[in-house]
Amino acid sequence: MNDDGNTTASTRRRAAASFFRVHERSEILALALPTILTMLSQTMMWTVDTALLGRVNSTSLAAAGLGGMITWCAYSAFNNLSRISGTFVAQAHGRNDDELVAHYAWQGMYLAVLAGLLLTFLGWHCRVAMPLTRNPADVQDLTAVYIRWRSTSAVATQVAFAVTGFFAGRRDVRVPMWCGIWGNVVNLVLALWLIFGWSGFALGGRTWLAVAPLGIKGAAIATAAGTWANALALVGFALAPSLRARYRLHRPRRPDTRALANLVRVGAPAAGENFMDMGGFVMFSVFVGTAGAVQLAASQITIQLLSFSFMPLWGLTTAAGVLVGNCLGAGEPARAAHYGRQTYKLGAYYSLFLAVLMVLLRDRIFGVFTNDPAVLALGPALAVAAAIFQYFDGVRMLSSGILQGAGDTRYAMVVTLILMWGMFIPLTWYLVVAQDGNVVAAWMGASVCYLLQGWFLWRRFASGKWRAVKIFR
Question: Furthest-apart CA pair in the chain: how many Å?
């Protein structure tokens, strides 16, 4: 009896240990860590601009945050459409079909260039839409300047997504990492030079590289240049001689209506989900902005803090999507589900760690971005709100990315539509506008909405319905 009891207790302990242990950790992290570093390099690109503009004035900081949010919202209508070629590449790679890998890489490029050209046009003519933000006139003017110059890299952004899909789908994640770091270096150098200006240096009786302080315009130009540097490096590596024998990407493929239709069929719902999510946050920022520049600046710093959760988790999610896609392409759905579960564990542990860090540093963390006393006063409460929010947002993001790796994109779009536009936006309006609430209340309300969204998407993964989705037709 005692032996049976000891055996049962030992079995339970082993089961509990197995439940909390991350299996296949080394394999997942080998793919995820370079992707996370790639995302962190992008985060640092935006963090540098935010930190530097915080030394200019709160108006520029608020305008850059709002402009970046609006720009990314417009991009989000196409981002996942450009990215979706990575899902097709991952499943084709799982089939060991190199020609199909190259074919979908080229078709994804066609969609990316078209999307980028449209976004460039919209960004350059954004001034007419600024009154809709209901922000002060000076914030509107600076926001329009930021969006116009930032949008000059729209083509580069979309192309980078498509080419990154080619590398990541084949589990080659180091090339995007190094290209991202290169783009970050270009942005840092140019941001320091253009935002604050420089007197230049004398050589041969002339002054070289002198530039007047450009402020927010300089920040946008620096970010655009860094984005182009990243995209051009990615394209260069994709066309490198070392890959030509196997994939022959240097030989252009003609547009294929059937392949393009497949990309749009799977990618359009994913793009719609992304757009509705970002659109909801733009409305969030608009409502917060009606409370004044201080509240908006504090909220934008909170969003910047969240990027340290979003970008690494997005990198982890991308890795999971690739592994799920590879396994489904190889006809192994059970193994795909296994990788999905292990990714959830890794994401949960990271989010908990970051939450603790944000709470411990709540009294100091806003000082990295601004020295405005009014903004700093909101910092501790917003840091705690961000710690709560980012955990639920992580569950949502991981679920969405795993489902996208399987090509199951419509369900996520419907859930996002209902919760973001049926709950999140009305609740934010009620807390901030109707009730004269503060930015802390708005962020706590956002946490509730993202908790529900993460729950519904996780339930979709747990149901296993995504295993039956077929992306090639």
Answer: 96
- pLDDT tier at 58 (50, 70, 90 boundaries)? confident
Do 427 and 444 form a contact (C-beta atoms < 8 A)? Answer: no
> Which residues, listed in sequence order, are joined to residue 208 by a DSSP beta bridge?
201
CB 115 within 8 A of CB 82: yes
Domain-located, residue 7: no
In a domain, 87, yes or no: yes
- Other CB atoms within 10 Å distance of the CB of residue 160: 28
Is residue 1 situated within a structural domain? no
Closest CA to 38 of 317, 241, 294, 271: 317
The answer to whether residue 10 is domain-embedded is no
The confidence score (pLDDT) of residue 50 equals 72
Residue 6, classified by CB atoms within 10 Å of its CB into exposed (0-12), middle (13-18) or buried (19+), is exposed
CA distances from 424 to 412, 417, 419 (A): 16, 10, 6
Which amino acid is present at 176?
A: P
Domain count of the fold of the chain? 1
For the chain, give percent helix, strand, coil, nearest 5.
Answer: 85, 0, 15
Predicted model pTM: 0.82
**226 vs 85, 181, 186, 435, CA distance in Å?**
23, 9, 5, 42
Alpha helices in 330-370 (DSSP H): 333-360
pLDDT interval class at 461 (50, 70, 90): very high
Tell me how far CA of residue 263 lies from CA of 114, 244, 313, 315, 407, in angstroms. Answer: 14, 24, 24, 22, 10
Task: Give the domain range for residue 424.
Answer: 23-468
